[in-house]
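Exam revision sheet. Question 4 asks you to relate a sequence to its structure. Input first:
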Amino acid sequence: MNGVSVVFAPLVPWPVLAGLSALAVLLLAVALWRGLKGWALRGLALLALLGGLAQPSVQHEDKTALSDIVLLVDDRSASQMLSDRGAQTDAALAQLSAAITALPNTELRRATVRDGAQNAGTQLGAVLSEALAAEPRGRVAGVVVLSDGRLHDPEALPDLPAPLHLLRTGHASDWDRRLVIETAPAFGIIGEETVIRLKVEDSGAVPPAAGATARLTISIDGAAPQDYPVMVGQDLELPLQLEHAGQNVVQFSLDAAPGQLTAQNDSAVVSINGVRDRLRVLLVSGQPHAGERTWRNLLKSDAGVDLVHFTILRPPEKQDGTPVSELSLIAFPTQELFLDKIDEFDLIIFDRYAERGILPAAYFENIRAYVERGGAVLVSAGPEFATVESLWQTPLGDILPARPTGRVLSTAFLPRPTVLGLRHPVTAGLTGAPPPAGDPGANHWGRWLRQIELTGARGEVVMQGAQEAPLLVLDRAGKGRVALLASDHAWLWDRGYEGGGPQLELLRRIAHWAMKEPDLEEEALQAEVEPGSLSVTITRRTMQDRASPVQITRPDGTVETVTLPQVEPGRFAQGWTAPAEGLYRLKQDDLERVVALGPASAREYETPVASGAALAPLIAASGGSEVALENGIPDLRQVRPGRVAAGRGWIGVTPREVTATTDIRLRALLPGWAWLALVAALAVAAWLIEGRRRGDQPN
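Answer key, structure tokens:
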């Protein structure tokens, strides 16, 4: 294909040339006014002069026609694998590829849509944008998409320079039932009602046999499931009561309905972190001492603790004549605290308390029963613990983890964790802890100056002191817990004596262990999921020297075994990557854990019924069409731009007739000397004519 045109390369700027043209017209007008006979030749001379200044050239262009481009996009996301959509796509892809290739002067470009990373769904908009960006938009004659029409990035859809045709897979008779979690709290208070809102929803051509009810199965932390009949299409509120702190995994599932597209969206998993509302602590202080406010300051510094402090400031043997009615501002409700409402407390602390008849034996009987029902008691012992006034002499002594020998060791000693204490979460990893064998050069804590000698320890001795006697003993009684600290000198660390020590952290751990904090459990199986991935860190805390392999049950029922190496005393951990999203069950010995990785059903299955609604605006704007493949694969035609691009049984692409210039040649209309000669010749001819005319006139 060739083209010819005239181009100019003026010797002077165009404004100057325009001014000269105006001057030439003025001179020509003057010549006419004076009646010069050679005005026409003079005008031609001026025109030739202007032409020479403009330098006209003839431009010859050699052009080559470029082929049109048709973009064929096939959707291979998870929803396209439902029913026979894959077979429909394969058949249409083969026929249309051949039809596009057979069109004259047309090239085929292919693009494939896969599932987006991290459950992003069908990224059709992004694939279309990338495919168009790689091609000259002026050559794109059409876009054909083989898909169910479901996409999850409509904001990424580009403006199209040619018709878009959606060849929709699926069938008009398709229908599906799914479980939708509308709202679910991330946190819930233990013992209080937590509400999850959900709905069972049908879509598509629902058959009458599907019924108006469905059976919903609920399981918490892998426990035995419970079934409930629910109405389809009705908003439901499910009240749950969390039983323990930490992660609570709630699994919902529906019975698969016959004929539905998929059962992948019939289940859902919700993880709710159980937290305590406010911990209620009863602190009973006995004889005043230098560290009396240690426990009070610790508990008051925690905003999540409600503290009730019962202080004995005046022992019964003190007779100073003060009327009983003036001993306190209000009567202390001992019966209400120790009998009626004792179960409302999470922890009872006795700080150097001596039994002097203030609390009746029945109260201690009730405290013991409270612990056996699941409560917690912590005893911070002073010298009175080694006397006849010791709590050991009360009914509470039946559950205390060690008994006093009657000796008070008044000597400086270095508190240190035992071998067992290096594994126990209460004492493991405390800042500056010395090794159990002792090392004079090691960084260690300051010394304490008094300890109550204990014997017959039946719990876990996690710290030792003077003469390697038990210093901190932890034990369980029934469903509850008991902690015994055989010294009242923890406050020396707070004062920085000989460098101090982690007093607040140690006392906090003791208190929270007694209140069954999940992070301080001696025997625990934990799984920490890395956000946005399928990577899991499995951690086993144990007081044993080794940990058994962990059995992992996958969502499909297959079992995998993972061995946990020891990373520090009492802690075994191993990273593991799950093969797919879903609910995994971890089991080791008698410990079990449920882990939810990703959603129970992929985003691809949220609305699996095929629909072109999301692409409808783009189809209308481009002049394309939506065709159901179940009605047959349409023929492919070429239509002119602006004409209807689809009809009964056919779709069209618009040839763009784009060309590329391969060569350009310029040839001056006349060389410079020729323009000068022409101007001179015309000027001389005009002068001769005018001179002859003047010579012919009579004198």
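Marking note for examiners. The chain has a mean pLDDT of 86.
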